[in-house]
Amino acid sequence: MISTLNFAGLVLATIFAAVAAVVCNWLFLRVMFNLMRPAAVRKTPDSAAAKRPTVRTELVRGTSELARAFAPSRRAI
Fold it and tell me: What is the pLDDT of residue 74?
């Protein structure tokens, strides 16, 4: 009888731990997706009615300059 109760307690603890792990992973995934949003996209109060994000062009230009700077060279050295 005691071994059956111990086994049931182990099963319940395992199920609880599995549910807690899934919830933590889901929350961390949501946070990471929010952190990985592009910095150039933001909502302004005047465009909130249109529900369209605006793009800051200075960040877009900086990103394209960085991409050009770190792109592999097309000429042979």
Answer: 59
Q: For residues 30 and 23, what is the distance between their CA atoms, to the nearest angstrom?
A: 11
Residues 25 and 48 in one domain: no
Does 77 lie in the same domain as 54?
A: yes
d(CA 71, CA 19): 44
**N-terminal to C-terminal alpha carbon distance within the chain:** 78
CA-wise closest residue to 42 among 65, 69, 60: 60
Same domain for 30 and 47? no
What is the extent of the structural domain holding 17?
A: 1-36
* CA separation for the pair 34, 27 (Å, rounded): 11
Same domain for 11 and 25, yes or no, is yes
Q: Kindly report, residue by residue over 15-65, the tens digit of the pLDDT.
A: 999 999 999 999 999 988 888 776 555 555 655 555 665 655 566 676 777
- Strand, helix or coil at 1? coil
